[in-house]
Each structure stands twice: as C-alpha cells, then as structure tokens.
Design a protein that fits this description.
The chain is of the alpha/beta class. It folds into two domains: 206 residues, Rossmann fold, CATH 3.40.50; 35 residues, no CATH class. Helix content is 48%, strand content 14%. It has a seven-stranded parallel β-sheet, sandwiched between helices. Helix 5 links the parallel strand 5 and strand 6. The two termini are 26 Å apart.
Length: 261
C-alpha cells in the first residue's frame, strides 16, 4: 500500500512535541501540506523547519492556546479563509491525574473546554472545505480510557468518553459527504506526559520511578511503551483515501494493554 496525501491540507493540533509532532511528520512524509497548531510560536517555527526538510509543503503554523476557546476559534477561522483543510487531527495534552471523587468542578469544565469544545470549534470550521472537496478526515487523539477507564485519571476518563461519543455522532452525520471521523487511542507512549504520570505516582506512593515504570510495563503484553510515531502511523492511514470506508471507530494503539475488544 502506498499512502499518498499529495495536495491534501492537514491541520495538526498540539504538534510541537510528542504524538502531535509525530503525526505532523508522518503526514508530511506522505505528501500532505501541514499546518501546525500550538501555543509556543518558537517551537512551532522549529517544527515547521523540520517539516520543510522532509517535504516541500508548503507547511505552515498557527498559534493558539487551547485553554482559550476564543483563541482557537480566531486562529482556525483565519486559516480556513486562506485554504481548505482536508485532514484535521484533534490533539491536546490530557487533564492532570487524580481520582474523580476529588476533582473540582472547574477541573471538569477546563478539560471539557480544552478537549471537546476546541475539537468542536475546529471541526465546525473545517467541515465546509471538506464538503466542497468531497473529502474529509477528522481524527481525534484520545485515550484507551474510552474502552476501559484508567486508574487515577478521573477527569480524563470522563472527558475522553464525551469526545468519543461526540465523534461517533459526527461520523454518522458526515459520512455521506465523504468525511470520516475516527478516534486513535494511544496507550502508554514515550512522551512528556507519560514521564510526568510516572514521576507523579512515584512521588505520591513514595517509591522509585523505575518501580512504577516496571508495574506499568507488566500490564502491557508487548512489554514496552509505545513510540510517538506508532499512533501517528494509524493517523496517517486513517487520513488517507485507503481508509474511506473506515468510519466512527476507536483504534487502540497500546501494545495490547486494553483488556476488552
């Protein structure tokens, strides 16, 4: 199979590091013109140069802080006036860990705004261009917690579930326009967030970080953490014409950790 995204415009959120950056790189390798989106303009400039070294593009970036729905809406509305977007990768950092019963109301509100509302704002902005092209791929980077809630991630489990059901609803509504909506569910992946989770648990339980890491690895049949490019491979396939009949699904990329089908 050859994945060719030439002349397709992609918008990748949270793309200055981790899985988001890996998605931007793999989409650029496949020939897409990638617009990066994050809050740190200096990092965006650096990643843009990396993409330009991979393919001609044109590649671009827009700046917005996902803690502000207003910033996100303003940035994406300006972008779609300049070009249609055919591929949208919704991705942003997860909520802080902690049990659901101790979470504050504002924790849920902030996570809802950062994840579901921003996803919705971005999606609404790009849908007209996708309809015009008869081609659209909306891919949400969420979590295996939508299949099996994860311990000590109460707010994340709750909001990720809302995003998954929002995505499935959109998949049904948009399929007739040639637009698919799918979710990629990374497991424990070698990113800054995983390191933070390990260190946080080690500190709270008063054990060494390598002991926490070992316990996490023992839960994964593959006996290793994922690489950021591995969920990015799934995203790139789902973004391609080859995945035109795959719609409204959750794709775990977790080394087999999730216990349910």
């Amino acid at each position: 199979m050859i994945i060719d995204l030439t002349e397709k415009n992609a918008l990748v959120c949270g793309s200055t590091n981790g899985i988001g950056k890996a998605c931007a790189i793999e989409l650029a390798k496949a020939g897409a013109n990638v617009t990066l989106m994050a809050r740190n303009e200096e990092m965006l400039k650096i990643v843009k140069e990396e993409l330009c070294a991979i393919s001609k593009g044109p590649h671009n970036y827009i700046v917005a802080d996902f803690s502000s729905n207003v910033q996100v809406q303003s940035a994406v509305e300006a972008l779609v006036k300049q070009q249609d977007i055919h591929i949208l990768v919704n991705n942003t950092g997860g909520p802080a860990p902690g049990p659901a019963n101790l979470a504050k109301n504002e924790d849920f509100i902030a996570a809802f705004q950062a994840h579901l509302l921003n996803n919705h704002i971005l999606t609404q902005a790009v849908i007209p261009g996708m309809k015009k092209a008869g081609y659209g791929r909306i891919i949400n980077m969420i979590s295996t917690s939508v299949k099996q809630p994860l311990p000590n991630l109460g707010v994340s489990n709750t909001i990720r579930g809302a995003v998954a059901n929002w995505a499935k609803t959109l998949a049904n509504e948009l399929a007739s326009f040639g637009i698919t909506v799918n979710n990629v569910l990374p497991g424990a992946t070698e990113t800054g967030r995983l390191k933070s989770i390990i260190e946080g648990k080690a500190s709270k339980t008063n054990v060494e970080a390598n002991e926490v890491e070992g316990e996490m690895l023992a839960e994964i049949p593959a006996r290793r953490f994922g690489k950021p490019e591995e969920p990015a491979y799934a995203v790139t396939f789902l973004a391609s014409p080859l995945a035109a009949y795959i719609n409204g699904i959750n794709v775990p990329v977790d080394g087999g950790r999730t216990a349910c089908l």
